[in-house]
Amino acid sequence: MWSTFIVSDEEGRMVAPGAAGTAGGLAGGGPASGAGGLTSLMGGRSTFGGKRRRTTSMGHGMSEAQEGKIKLAFFVAIVGVVLTVLGVGTEFWVELAPSKSFYNNQSCLTAHLGLWKGCTKTLWVADIDPERESCGPAELPGESNCTYFKFFTTGENAVMFQKTTQRNLNVAAAMLSLFSLFLMVMGTICIGMALSKEILFFLKPASICFILSGVLVLLAIVVFHQSILAFLASDHTVPLHHELSWSVSCIGCAGAILIVGGVFFLLLALPCSPWQRCFPHKDSGS
Q: Where are the transmembrane segments (predicted)?
C-alpha cells in the first residue's frame, strides 16, 4: 500500500506530487524515480535551508550581501536628504550685522536670512561679547521680527539696512534647492524599486539623481552667496558684516554626502567590482 506525499507550495496550496504517475513511476523505476519527481518539483525555488531569494526577469537574483550594501548606501543618501531639508527649511543661511555702536549704546539690530524669509532681531549690547565689534550673533535673546519674502508672489524685493535684495538670484537659489529635493525623491523611489523588485538596473538612475541633487545643492549655495554680495553692494550707507551661518553648513555637508551616496550606488550597479578588476583574486593552487 502506497502512502501519498502531501506538499504545500509557496502560495499555501496543497499539492500531491506524482498523483497521476506515482504508481507508474514507482513501478518502473522504484522509489528512486519517485524521489526524483519530488526533487524536481521542489528544485525550482527552494525554501529550505535558508532565506528564499527571488529571481528577476533577467534571471539574476539579488544576494543578501548586495542588499546590505544597497541599504548602507541608501542610509548615507538619507542623511544627505535630511540635512538638505533642514537647511532649506531654515532661515540661518547668512547673518548680517552693523557695528554695535551704529544705533546706540544700549541696543543694536541684526538680521539673518534664508531662501524664503528674513528676520531682524534687536539685541542688547550688554549681552554681546565685548571683543565682538559687530552686533550678534543672532542666537542671543532679543525681540525678533520675521517676514516671508515676496519674491514668489508679487515679485517685490526686500529692503534691509537700506539695501535691496536681488530677486533673480534669490529665486534662482530657491529653485535650485527645490529641484534638488525633487531629484532626491526620484532617487529614493528608484532605490525602493530596486530593493522591492530586486532589480539592480534601478541603481543607475538613482545614482544619477543623487549625484545631480548634490551638485545642485552646492550650486544653490554659490548662487545665494552671489545674491548676498549683490545685496551688500546695492547701498554703502550702512556698513554691514556678513557671515554664512549653520544652515549653509548643513547644505554643504548634504551636497557632499549626496554625491558620495550616488557614487556608491553607481559602483554597486556595475557588473564587476572595480576592486576585483584591479586586484583579481588568485587561487591558492595557482
A: 72-94, 171-195, 207-232, 244-270
